[in-house]
Structures are given as structure tokens and as C-alpha cells.
Amino acid sequence: MVEVVLVESPREAGQLVARSIIDLVAAKPDAVLGFATGTTPLVIYNELAAAVKRGECDLSRVRGFALDEYVGLSEAHPESYHSVIERDVIGPLGLDPNLVHVPNGALDSIQHAGQDFEDAIIAAGGIDLQILGIGTVGHLGFNEPGSSLSSLTRVKTLTHQTRQDNARFFGTIDEVPMHSITQGLGTILRSEHAVMLAFGESKAKAVQRAVEGGVSASLPASILQLHRHATVLVDAEAASRLENLTYYQRAWEQKMVWQRL
Ligand code: F6R
Questions:
Q1: 69 CB under 6 A from ligand 1?
Q2: If you take atom 4 of ligand 1, which residue's CA is the nearest one?
Q3: pLDDT for residue 257
Q4: Would the CB of 183 count as within 6 Å of ligand 1?
Q5: How does pLDDT run across 105-151, given as a tens digit for each residue?
Q6: 216 CA distance to ligand 1 centroid (A)?
Q7: What is the pTM of this model?
Q8: Which of 13, 37, 66, 220 could form a disulfide with 7 if both were Cys (CB 3.0 to 4.6 A apart)?
Q9: Are 57 and 22 in contact (CB under 8 A)?
Q10: What is the pLDDT of residue 259?
Q11: All domains of the chain in start order, with CATH
């Protein structure tokens, strides 16, 4: 079962996941993290940045892999995920930029960029903890509805809805690239621990289908049901359509101390 954790606020979700990452890095200083971009995971990055600032943890040996990147957008563009990861993650968390990989969306090498990225993840020994957000269409990374359940990093065409959702970062929808390069659903399934966050009513339908619906390429986040260790943290709005919420709450409250997130 996907573990569902109902939180009182996005901040609480950020604190729980940050704590889990701090514990992981204490045990394994060169742990491998998977980074989502977008608005949702910022609560985690903010908590980690504050912990680093207070001297509570040192993340300088942590290795990282971003989930995705736009194709054909210059790395220097402020909304490229290279820029976003540098701005929101590498800088604030004090990571070594040489240890953080973002898929290469440059057109001249795009044909082998997916394989290169997969090779780099394997060379690092795999991802220990993968941070995820969910799109209103139910995507993970940029694995849009219809994505193969065993897909690896590759180029995907973005749906109109995703381009519309991300237009807020660019100004107009026309400026949002048509294509992305994204870790596949199979790549995400290989991670040791997949942690998805979702906040707000706009995510409620996708969350319900991901956690309680059938496993289907039509709702890519439903692959979390196939993951051996998947945690979904939701606020009350994102959880509002879950049918078994009372049970998830009870399971969380009754969890034994040694069973961490
Ligand atoms: C981006 C990514 C996407 C986002 C999703 C939700 O790296 O992986 O799947 O997580 O589109 O975006 P926000 O958090 O902005 O609602």
C-alpha cells in the first residue's frame, strides 16, 4: 500500500521529509537524492536550507538527479530546470554542483541524453530518496498520461494542460516548450524510497486516482502502488477525495517508532 500521510500544512510535510533526508544523510553522507522542481517541493528545500544554515546537517557530499528538463530551452534560461535546480536546490542546500545532474535537453545530443542520464544514475548506485510532485493530469516528472509503466529517461511531448499549468513560470503558454526529457516511470520505480507531496484542491482528483484507482498508464502517478516503499504526503484539500483517509490516518498514528517515514 502507498503510505498516505495527512499533514496539517505544507510546512509540516516539508519538515517531515527534510527530517527523513537529514537522517538518511547522517547515515550515508553521499546519499543520492532525486529532485523534483515546481512549487510543491519548495517546502522541503526551504526546511533543508534552514537546517544547513543552523549547522544541523552538511549536504555537501550529497549526490543528486533532477527529474526532468525542457527540451530545446537554453540552460541559462531562468525557467530551465538547470537554472531552477541551481537556484532552489544547489545554492540554498550547499550542494556541490558537480554532484548534481539534470537531464540534458540540448537538441544536438537529445537522442542519447536519456541513456546518458540512466547510465549516470546507475553509476551512482541508484537513487535513495526520490522527491516527487504530481501534476493535475496525474503526471510524475513529465510522464504524461499514456506513459509506459516501465519507461526510462526519454523525451516526452507535454500535454496542453501541463503547458497551461506551467505557463505561470513563463508568462504565456506559447513560451512553454513542447517537449521535455524526463526520468521514466520505470526509473522512478527503481528508487529506494519515493516520496510524493500534493497540496491543494486542484490535486485532489489526481491523488485519489493515484492512490486508490487502478494502476494505469492513464494516471502515471498510480505506479506508486507498484513501488516497494512509497509515501504520499497530502494536506486536507489534496486528501479531500480519498475514500480510505480514516484508515490512512489510523495507520500513521499507530506506526511504530522504528518505522520511519
Ligand atoms: C517537475 C515535476 C512535475 C511537478 C508537477 C507538479 O520536476 O516533476 O511533475 O512535480 O507538475 O508541479 P507543482 O509542484 O508546481 O504543482
A1: no
A2: 133
A3: 78
A4: no
A5: 999 999 999 999 999 999 999 999 999 999 999 999 999 999 999 99
A6: 19
A7: 0.97
A8: 13
A9: yes
A10: 77
A11: 3-253 (3.40.50.1360)
140 C-alpha to center of ligand 1: Å? 7
Cell of 203: 490535486
Q: Which residue has the cell 549526490?
A: 63
The set of cell numbers assigned to 204 is 485532489
In the chain, which stretches have pLDDT less than 70? Answer: none
Provide the residue type at 144 as one letter. Answer: E
